[in-house]
């Protein structure tokens, strides 16, 4: 295990809240939902629960697989989340959702229940470097001014549990609707923020409209 991966794992094993992002082919969406129902009591033992799920995410920028779904779990304790990833017999099975992607992301803020849409920015950065505090502050102000809830997560300490992609620096914002996100993204202010971000790094961006219930 590299030093960078070890640091990411350590961060996700802290006492802080962690989101687990689980990506899968859209055709396996029902399988994911069934697994969440079946294993809900196990998740709860480890302080976890399902935040939401969507059958197909919207690719905004970069290279993202087509027909790709996403599930988001929230664990109140990072240490318990780390135990869950190695203990749940369904989610840790090698054949779970075929080529599943699973990443643990330390959270800066709780995700408000009335913001069911997440924009997830995966910045392609080197050696764990990320945007400056000024850049993050400017981004947060811009998102907040557009009605979004900024910087649910802003971290380069993303731990890959399994998957083919190598996570970079994650910036996650929450929105009330996909229309609200697109209004910001296509606005003059959004374009200015995008230009500043693209000077730092390329990015893959997806929009996930989460359904809370199964």
- The arrangement of helices and strands along the chain is HEHHEEEHEEHEEEHHE
The whole-angstrom Rg is 16 Å
Mass-distribution shape: globular
Beta content comes to 25-35%
Give average pLDDT, whole number: 90
Give the spatial strand order of the biggest sheet: 2-4-1-5-8
Query: Would you tell me which CATH topology applies?
Result: Alpha-Beta Plaits
CATH class category: Alpha Beta
As residue ranges, the low-confidence spans are: 1-6
How many E-type strands? 10
Verbal overview:
The chain has 214 residues and is of the alpha+beta class. It has a single domain (3-209), classed as Alpha-Beta Plaits, CATH 3.30.70. Helix content is 33%, strand content 30%. The protein is built from 7 helices and 10 strands. The protein has helices at 3-12, 29-38, 40-45, 78-87, 133-145, 178-185, 188-200; strands at residues 18-25, 48-54, 58-61, 68-75, 101-106, 117-123, 149-155, 159-162, 169-175, 203-209. The strands form 2 sheets. Strands 2-4-1-5-8 form a 5-stranded antiparallel β-sheet. A 5-stranded antiparallel β-sheet has the order 3-10-6-9-7. α5 (133-145) packs antiparallel against α7. The model is unreliable at 1-6 (pLDDT under 50).
């Amino acid at each position: 295990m590299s030093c960078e991966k070890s640091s990411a794992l350590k961060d996700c094993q802290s006492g802080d809240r962690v989101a687990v992002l689980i990506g899968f082919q859209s055709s396996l969406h029902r399988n994911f939902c069934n697994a969440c129902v079946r294993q809900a009591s196990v998740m709860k033992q480890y302080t976890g629960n399902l935040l939401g799920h969507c059958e197909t995410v919207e690719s905004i920028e970069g290279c993202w697989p087509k027909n790709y779904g996403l599930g988001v779990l929230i664990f109140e304790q990072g240490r318990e989340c780390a135990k869950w990833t190695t203990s749940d017999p369904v989610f840790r099975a090698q054949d779970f959702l075929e080529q599943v992607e699973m990443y643990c992301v330390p959270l800066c803020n709780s995700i408000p229940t009335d913001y069911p849409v997440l924009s997830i920015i995966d910045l392609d950065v080197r050696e764990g470097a990320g945007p400056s505090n000024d850049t993050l502050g400017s981004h947060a102000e811009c998102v907040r001014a557009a009605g979004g809830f900024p910087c649910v997560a802003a971290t380069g300490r993303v731990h890959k549990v399994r998957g083919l992609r190598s996570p970079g620096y994650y910036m996650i914002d929450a929105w009330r609707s996909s229309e609200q996100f697109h209004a910001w993204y296509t606005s003059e202010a959004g374009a200015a923020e995008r230009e500043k971000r693209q000077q730092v790094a390329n990015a893959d961006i997806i929009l996930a409209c989460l359904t809370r219930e199964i």
